[in-house]
Amino acid sequence: MADLRSDIAGIKSPNPFWLASAPPTDKAYNVERAFKAGWGGVVWKTLGEDPPIVNTTSRYGAVSLNGQRIAGFNNIELITDRPLDVNLREIKQIKRDWPDRAVLVSLMVPCEEAPWRKILAAVEDTGADGVELNFGCPHGMSERGMGSAVGQVPEYVEMVTRWCKAMTRMPVFVKLTPNVTNILAPARAAKLGGADAVSLINTINSIVAVDLDNMAPMPTVDGKGSHGGYCGPAVKPIALHLVAEIAKDPECAGMAISGIGGIETWRDAAEFISLGADNVQVCTGAMHYGFKIVDDMIDGLNNWMDGKGHNNAADFHRAAVPNLVAWQDLNINHELVARIDQDKCIKCGLCHIACEDTAHQAISVSGNGSNRRFETIDAECVGCNLCAHVCPVEDCITMEAVDNGKPYLNWAQDPRNPNAAAAE
Amino acid sequence: MVDIQAGRLSAAELAENFADVHRPFDHGGAVVEANRCYFCYDAPCINACPTGIDVPGFIRAIATGNVSGAAMTILKENIFGGSCARVCPTEILCQGDCVRNGPGDRAVEIGLLQRHATDHLDADGPHPFDRVPDSGKSVAVVGAGPAGLTCAHALARNGHKVTIFEGRPKPGGLNEYGIAAYKLPDDFAQREVAFITAIGGIDIQNSKALGRDITLDQLRLDYDAVFLGLGQAGVRDLGVPGSDLEGVDSAVDYIAELRQADDLGALAVGANIVVIGGGNTAVDIAVQSKRLGANDVTLVYRRGPEQMGATQHEQDFAQTNGVRIKHWLRPLQLEGDGNVKAAVFAGVHLEGGALVDTGEEQSIPCDMVFKAVGQAFVPLAGEGPAVSGGRITVDDVGQTSLPDVWAGGDCVAGEDLTVQAVQDGKLAAGAIHRCLVGS
Ligand SMILES: Cc1cc2nc3c(=O)[nH]c(=O)nc-3n(C[C@H](O)[C@H](O)[C@H](O)COP(=O)(O)OP(=O)(O)OC[C@H]3O[C@@H](n4cnc5c(N)ncnc54)[C@H](O)[C@@H]3O)c2cc1C
Ligand SMILES: Cc1cc2nc3c(=O)[nH]c(=O)nc-3n(C[C@H](O)[C@H](O)[C@H](O)COP(=O)(O)O)c2cc1C
Ligand code: SF4
Questions:
Q1: For residues B152 and B162, what is the distance between their CA atoms, to the nearest angstrom?
Q2: B41 pLDDT band (50/70/90 cuts)?
Q3: Which ligand 1 atom sits nearest the alpha carbon of residue B171?
Q4: Which letter, b or e, does each residue of B302-336 get, where b requires 16 or more Cβ atoms within 10 Å of its Cβ?
Q5: CB neighbourhood size of A205 (10 A)
Q6: Which of A262, B120, B351, B396 has a CA 20 to 30 Å removed from the CA of B27?
Q7: Domains with residue ranges and CATH for chain B
Q8: pLDDT surpassing 60 at residue A378
């Protein structure tokens, strides 16, 4: 059995699986159930100043893909809609009842010192383990000058982070919005402001669909729609990239990373950790299936780690970071060709048509009916691996390395590059 | 003309007929099927499984690629998860309650997914459950069928020493001697017994029958507790003239012979066969004799299709195997001199709930007749536990009228299914353990 205990910015939890600040962490009732189900920690649904905000109906939109429900999820909800003192009382109670679990509190108040000082003092009194500054929500609150409206201006990120670090002894996490051109700008600002960790990603600006009968963007509120925040499995690749960017950046070194975005399985979590996340947070996965999914996250991660001989997450934390390089550092001399296993081939022809219509005309077809035969034309194959992706049969098309005898060569050194520094 | 002979089909045809009826999933297929599961909250399939396996839990683990975790989720509740995946009538159990049943959709293939997960466990690897240190207590289990072996495994996990007394030469119960050959092909039953007993602390003594070689009184003196997983050793009789003719056999005896045959080609089977009965055993013998090469197999049942013990799925399976099913016929007599030559039936219909003869008669020519009108529990002679309705009386955790004797499986009331025997054995093991450790 591997050791799943987790430590991020000095905050300990029995496992690295936390629930992100969102409806699953909205009140004591949910958090109690989450902890009973085995979650290692929560970031409490974002608190703001009283009076509480008011939400609309409906609030959620979703994308389903080939029958898979909620491949992507979107919402137009705001921060907590419950009074501040009710939340604070419940946080205090939960932390007292569950001392071994991590309880962070997400915060969003206007960009002035006084409200931050006031709310930080109130949170400190609950015994919570830390705070997460919500500079991320892209809808509703940003129009009021909070959320991503702050996260998109590095100077504000740095300023508010610095205030908070000075005002509280609690670790400060800064939750970043992905709705920026370069994630390093707000991440470095958080680092300069003294943040202990960044959490990312918050949701991505989006419109999930249009109701074509009523010509209304979805989710629809009385015939009208509004852009909302996108999350769920569809956003995982974007989140992985942004996490990795920060993990690789020397200026961000030393600042912990809480990975968020589309995480639903142990495998997703292992990928985030290998690219630099110190722990992970989940929202949509829990909203789709309930808290029980953490069972398989814990069990599956454990089994995978045992199989690989990893004793704890430190054994593979950042293990994939050195292998993430800039495009120009890839080996341009590396050559692959597609190999089709004729015994496995079911003669569907998908590889042929994909290559023929949209790639390099490198898969020939001969014979007809069930005697059809698909073969790679090695001289034409560029090794792009489109065919391997479209083939519905597992391991039927594999990419084989060609021993061309050529040494490692990157684009900067390649004579075909007009700007090659090669000449010397 | 009587035509009973061996070797009706070539070895290749027999091999094909008695190979696995269900094609297992490959990894990709299992993941696609697993993703069809909605991961229902409080899923009805869990309740529909007599052993309460967390079905959506293990299916999700398959979907995420955590297949050994899936296997453990199954085996935790049901150590016979491998054979149950193959023999359970899932259409009336877990899959019958799947929310995807309905027009235009179909249930998730829970049985096949369960098989995928349990097959994935490395049979040669270490046993996946640990034993706690020896408790100093010992338990006698009588009968090495699913009920007895499940009970033994759970007790062994808790550190108790178990001795199993099995009357037959091999352990496994009906998994070894009764289940249709194409449901548990090869030596699956013996491999599963080896897997279960690999936990340690279980000693199986074959060819030791209670009532013949040992007595219950002695077991009660020698052990701290006794579990009876005796199954149903008796076969009900037809009670019509001619039952003792040559060519008339009990279905379960013939199936046992078939299951033990090294060479199916050496097994004699008739050209024209009549099977009398309406349960799964009747379907099993009908299909297996057809697959041995019989020309014509007629299954005769005295009531209609709805009343048959065999599930709709099993009836369809019989028919697609070329078995003819006749309803509303009651056996009158078996005719022949030496060997049976015809089975004679009276037509019946229902009148106010009772079967009444219509006055018609039908004679079906045949050279073999299989009786499949039910098995029966044979009560123990002497000071055995109380029996009611022909089965050992037990409470809801399997305790009999004797304070130190528990029982479960086919020898007690309830569904006669492998999975139910497993659940009985599991519950009784829990009760015995609590009793032995005094809590
Ligand atoms: C032909 C047939 C087909 C079946 N097909 C299916 C199916 O497809 N799916 C399904 O779920 N169920 C099926 N069943 C039912 C299923 O096999 C039983 O419900 C299950 O095996 C019961 O388990 P058990 O442990 O109670 O009894 P058994 O499996 O009968 O085991 C009892 C064991 O006790 C031993 N024993 C009996 N008396 C003594 C004694 N005096 N001393 C020592 N040992 C003794 C026996 O030799 C045997 O090994 C079928 C049954 C039959 C007869
Ligand atoms: C309905 C809903 C409400 C949310 N509310 C908040 C919030 O109050 N504060 C916050 O920091 N993030 C909020 N989020 C964003 C999530 O915490 C998380 O960053 C995002 O959903 C990505 O993770 P996921 O792909 O696991 O859902 C919300 C998300 C959803 C779906
Ligand atoms: S999920 Fe619950 S609150 Fe939301 S619409 Fe359905 S019933 Fe109402």
A1: 6
A2: confident
A3: 49
A4: bbeeeebbbbeebbebbeebebebebbbbbbebbb
A5: 16
A6: A262
A7: 23-119 (1.10.1060.10), 138-233+377-437 (3.50.50.60), 236-374 (3.50.50.60)
A8: yes
Q: From the CA of B338, how many Å to the nearest CA of chain A?
A: 55
- Local confidence band at B250 (pLDDT 50, 70, 90 cut-offs): very high
Q: Is the peptide bond before A257 cis (omega within 30 degrees of 0)?
A: no
What was the ipTM of the complex prediction?
A: 0.74
Side-chain-side CA neighbours of residue A172 (13 Å) = 25
Q: Is residue A323's pLDDT more than 80?
A: yes
What is the rounded CA–CA span in Å between residue B308 and residue B313? Answer: 11
Long-range CB pairs of A123-126 (<8 Å, 24+ gap) are A123/A47, A123/A88, A123/A91, A123/A168, A123/A170, A124/A168, A124/A169, A124/A170, A125/A88, A125/A92, A126/A88, A126/A91, A126/A92, A126/A95
Q: Is the pLDDT of residue A137 over 90?
A: no
Beta bridge partners of B203: B163
Write out the two tokens for B154.
């759970």
What are the φ and ψ backbone dihedral angles of B382, each rounded to 5 degrees? Answer: 80, -145
Choose the residue to mutate in A283, A284, A288 for probing ligand 2, maximizing ligand atoms within 8 Å of C-beta. A283
Q: Which atom of ligand 2 is nearest to the CA of A203?
A: 20
Q: What is the CA angle A138-A244-A305, rounded to 5?
A: 115
- Which residues does residue B343 pair with via DSSP β-bridges, in sequence order? B334, B364
The DSSP secondary-structure symbol of B23 reads P
With contact defined as beta carbons under 8 Å apart, do B416 and B147 qualify? no
Residue B439 has pLDDT above 70, yes or no: no
Contact state of B69 with A296 under an 8 Å Cβ cutoff: yes
